[in-house]
UniProtKB/TrEMBL annotation:
Keywords: FAD, Flavoprotein, Oxidoreductase. It comes from Micromonospora parathelypteridis. This is Alkylation response protein AidB-like acyl-CoA dehydrogenase. The keyword Nucleus does not apply. Residues 230-381 form the Acyl-CoA dehydrogenase/oxidase C-terminal domain. Pfam families: Acyl-CoA_dh_1 (PF00441), Acyl-CoA_dh_M (PF02770), Acyl-CoA_dh_N (PF02771). GO terms for cellular component: plasma membrane. Residues 125-217 form the Acyl-CoA oxidase/dehydrogenase middle domain. The keyword S-adenosyl-L-methionine does not apply.
């Protein structure tokens, strides 16, 4: 029997605990979530449910007494919460961002203390942004003046997630004319008259979330609060953001799943012209494209999350791809499902207690957190010339196969995370196996399509892969050492993200085909995913009709069952798909 993928089992356990969101009477039902939204609050008792279950333990590495074995496990539990309300995923995501520098560079005392308090229910925050400077670290005006025994901290950090509710704030401060350091500030150790918590910011979505700020007014911080060596805060921040960028797609996956489920269910219940609107070709097309996009996003997200422990030195590029692409796909999917729901998508009551409009408003934050879409595209564009220069370098086939199968396996757990800042890099130095390994993936697809048990869509799949190969060659042959801020560079970065997604989908199919079996192995979903990516690349490609009908039938079966959410695992028949 195949090994169970622990991430799925953990997420299923949480899903059962939180209950069916369509049913009333629980803090995580859509009914209570929307009611609390009207009060700019979180549902009564909801935080207690997550705390009692131990959600915070997934913010703490196992070596420090938590349950965070690998980032993909947190991805799946955060997706489970995000299906109901992003506010909780954002709260714990902000806490993870605040804690990561300590896990990566903190000393034994800092790590042990923070881990104990987080597991016990304390929150952390990442105090970097400033009202006048945003996230421009080199312009930071918050200063930590050295004094005997420590520092005196002065200045304002705003806006900061969890700034008021958090006990610990990982704070970026100027410690010299051109020196910036991270300090672990424990508010319980500060003189109460030396800091001021600022009011919650009123936001379009995420109502009830603590987005506020803090002003330090001569706060004494002990020297032991410095996280790692002084003067390296810029490097620390850039590396720590790679981890949260790889985790943020969980918010999009959860939102997409709920939006798709609501729209699909409504499309079968709502009748026009004597038939369900699901029978209308335009509605059918919206639903198919939305479900295919979720599968693409899932493949990209899982690979990026597992990269933290499988290939951490590649995360500088891969996390930016995931952070850009998955929220963008999520926004488009939610907007498309709004078209299916029509006027109901705009109401604060009615279908699922009017939760859709909340999902749409909340999800807008996913593209803004930890670098906007443009910031991430700029970083990708900056690395593309180096990737292109090495695109013909081919690692050994067995090494590539092992890497792909470990990154995208749904039947084996990722290696356990042993946090170390030195494992992360500021750039990939031109190495990107998901682009440079495309020829190897193509050969493996060709081999699978030549076997006696070849997928029923083999001919179309081979043609689509060949089409993508031509796009690959044209794209990277034209890459130059450009201004990464230019529009051509930004457009090329988007193309890079879509080609990365194509590799992720193919590698996911190859890594799990034997274990999953069923419709997953037959490859219809893969064909649809690659065709959808070609369409996003501007190619004139229509989605294959028969696989599209089969995919939507599988989605409908999933929507009728609970607990379940639409995923590539729904398409298989083996143990990993149970």
């Amino acid at each position: 029997m195949a090994h169970r993928y622990a991430a799925l089992d953990i997420a299923a356990e949480l899903d059962l605990l939180l209950g069916d969101p369509m049913a009333g009477g629980t803090p995580f039902s859509f009914e209570q979530i929307v009611e609390a939204e009207e009060r700019d609050a979180l549902p009564d008792g909801a935080v207690d449910v997550l705390r009692d279950w131990g959600f915070a333990e997934f913010l703490v590495p196992t070596a420090l007494g938590g349950r965070l074995r690998s980032l993909d496990e947190l991805l799946f539990v955060a997706r489970t919460v995000s299906r109901r309300s992003l506010a909780f995923a954002v709260m714990y995501g902000s806490a993870l961002l605040g804690a990561n520098p300590v896990w990566l560079w903190g000393d034994e005392e800092q790590r042990g203390r923070l881990a104990k308090e987080i597991v016990g229910g304390a929150l952390s925050a990442f105090a970097v942004s400033e009202a006048d400077h945003g996230s421009d670290l080199l312009a930071s005006s918050v200063a930590a003046e050295p004094v005997p025994g420590g520092f005196v901290l002065t200045g304002q950090k705003w806006p900061v997630g969890n700034a008021t509710r958090a006990r610990f704030l990982t704070t970026c401060a100027r410690t010299g004319p051109r020196s910036f350091s991270l300090l672990l500030v424990d508010k319980e150790e500060l003189s109460r008259d030396s800091f001021r918590e600022m009011p919650f910011v009123r936001t379009v979505g995420l109502r009830g979330h603590d987005l506020s700020g803090i002003e330090f007014e001569g706060s004494f911080i002990p020297a032991a609060a410095a996280i790692g060596n002084q003067g390296i805060a810029v490097v620390q921040v850039l590396k720590a953001l790679q981890i949260t960028r790889a985790a943020i797609p969980a918010m999009s996956l959860g939102t997409m799943d709920s939006a798709l489920r609501l729209a699909l269910t409504y499309s079968h219940e709502r009748r026009l012209y004597g038939a369900p609107i699901a029978d209308l070709p335009v509605i059918h097309d919206h639903l198919v494209r939305g479900h295919v996009d979720l599968l693409i996003a899932e493949c990209v997200a899982v690979g990026a999350a597992r990269a933290l422990t499988v290939a951490p030195d590649r995360l500088s590029l891969w996390s930016s791809v995931a952070k850009y692409l998955v929220p963008v796909i999520g926004d488009e999917t939610v907007l498309s499902m709004a078209t299916v729901l029509g006027a109901r998508s705009y109401l604060r009551e009615g279908v699922a207690h009017g939760v859709f409009q909340k999902l749409q408003r909340d999800h807008a934050i996913a593209a803004i957190f930890e670098g906007t879409t443009h910031v991430n595209l700029h970083g990708i564009a900056g690395q593309m010339p180096f990737v292109a220069a090495r695109r013909h370098e081919q690692p050994a086939a067995d090494q590539l196969d092992d890497l792909f199968d470990t990154l995208f396996s749904w039947s084996t757990d990722a290696p356990i995370w042993q946090p170390a800042g030195a494992d992360l890099r500021l750039t990939n130095e031109g190495r990107d196996e998901l682009i440079q390994g495309w020829p190897r993936l193509v050969r493996r697809v060709e081999t699978a399509c030549a076997r006696p048990d070849r997928p029923s869509v083999a001919d179309e799949l081979l043609a689509t892969v060949a089409h993508l190969s031509r796009v690959h060659e044209e794209t990277y042959a034209s890459v130059t050492h450009w201004d990464a801020r230019s529009l051509p560079a930004m457009r090329a970065a988007i193309t890079h993200c879509l080609l990365h997604a194509a590799s992720a989908c193919v590698a996911t199919w190859l890594a799990n085909r034997a274990t999953f079996g069923g419709a997953f192995a037959d490859g219809g979903w893969l064909l649809l995913s690659l065709q959808r990516l070609l369409a996003r690349l501007g190619e004139r490609v229509d989605l294959a009709e028969q696989p599209a009908r089969e995919l939507l039938s599988a989605a409908a079966r999933t929507a009728q069952a609970w607990p379940s959410y639409f995923s590539i695992r729904c398409l298989g028949s083996g143990p990993a798909a149970d």
